[in-house]
Amino acid sequence: MRKINILKAIVDLLWIFxxxxxxxxxxxxxxxxxxxxxxxxxxxNGVSLHSDINSKILFxxxxxxxxxxxxxxxxxxxxxxYFLRVKVFENEVINSLKKIGNLLTVSGIISLIISxxxxxxxxxxxxxxxxxxxxxxxxxxGLFSLILSEIFKIAKLQKQENDLTI
Length: 166
Fold this sequence. Notes:
Elements: H1 2-31, E1 43-44, E2 47-48, H2 53-84, H3 91-123, H4 134-164
Antiparallel strand pairs: 1-2
């Protein structure tokens, strides 16, 4: 039980520290289309901000993609809260795991696409890289969370069935 308390404390700290960045990201996404921010050397997930509209759109999508990960962190906090109260097979846990999986999978796919487009557009290089990268890891975590959601749903049905048998 001590490990889950440590995990909950770490996730809560991440949540607290990420809240100011949510406001900054929303502000930056709105301001990059109206204010020239080229003097600042801004990078999000390998996408840098330039003066043309395509670069601004890529940067805005990369910034908004970060908000998907913050939303997944929120649902992970909810799951940990239920785990601490030893309510593992609640519908809220199953639904939150499914939401985490969907958010992380979509975020990973979007960041993979943005990274590829950014390399083609900015660096003007086309290449295929094999190996482990952050985008694939996020997609894997998302799919794993979806699998956990299904496993918890099956376990909940088994638990209900066992509770009914005497």
